[in-house]
Amino acid sequence: xxxxxxxxxxxxxxxxxxxxxxxxxxxxxxxxxxxxxxxxxxxxxxxxxxxxxxxxxxxxxxxxxxxxxxxxxxxxxxxxxxxxxxxxxxxxxxxxxxxxxxxxxxxxxxxxxxxxxxxxxxxxxxxxxxxxxxxxxxxxxxxxxxxxxxxxxxxxxxxxxxxxxxxxxxxxxxxxxxxxxxxxxxxxxxxxxxxxxxxxxxxxxxxxxxxxxxxxxxxxxxxxxxxxxxxxxxxxxxxxxxxxxxxxxxxxxxxxxxxxxxxxxxxxxxxxxxxxxxxxxxxxxxxxxxxxxxxxxxxxxxxxxxxxxxxxxxxxxxxxxxxxxxxxxxxxxxxxx
Length: 337
What we know:
Order of helices and strands: HHHHHHHEEEEHEHEHHH
Distance between the termini: 95 Å
Shape: elongated
Number of helices: 12
Helix content: 40-55%
Number of strands: 6
Strand content: 5-15%
Structural class: alpha/beta
């Protein structure tokens, strides 16, 4: 059987002049040249080009032989665009909250707005933040990533590894402690001690000029004062600041002291994550003081915000204070600062 190849006729419109149309429009023009050459047989045209009749007739209604631009794709923009439904007052409040807490996203802002009686969806707050950025009203703060650095590890002769039998079930069963190197200015180095309870996510932070065991022992006193529950055990890395005076203070206070194996910061993951949060949400966006006393006052204000205002995703967008309130009756906990 001999096959016959049907040649698509050349468009007389394209031969007449060099018409600037897209490749898709040229292909559609071939449909109608073929359609005209075969006596208006739409079924044959659709089979030849592998298109549906619905598509063919839709373009046939749009096709103007004297205006080949009619075969171009039109705009897909909807006739009616979605209009914003938030009020100017809500926009101003979201802007104020975001400026107050530059690193908090839409989920946390929704929780804060809900506390004020403003019931809004997370997607609306997200769109509102995007609109504020597009208008240039909301500018993300520049992160000063040179302020912090990690402390080196050190071998330890005293503290023991946390035994597998040690169960962490209640607030205070295990508090992870670590240090953060803070560089507010070139040549200026401060040390922040951070403690995080792994159950309630309650944090205690304090800055010192140096990370020594004496400073760590003073921080231990601060930690026990500010934690709203009794602390049973601490877990630290191999830093020398957690030896000597610090270990003696833990022993005198009857606190279990666990030390991590070398090169295993992941086992102190809770406090490591806390260091990142404090770096991003405080140091990178707050012009902190250089004087230790003033800086500690600012850190204590941020600590209060962190524990009583900031919604925590890991706690179901509750604060550590709200988590503790639901965990036990107020009489079982010390009064939160």
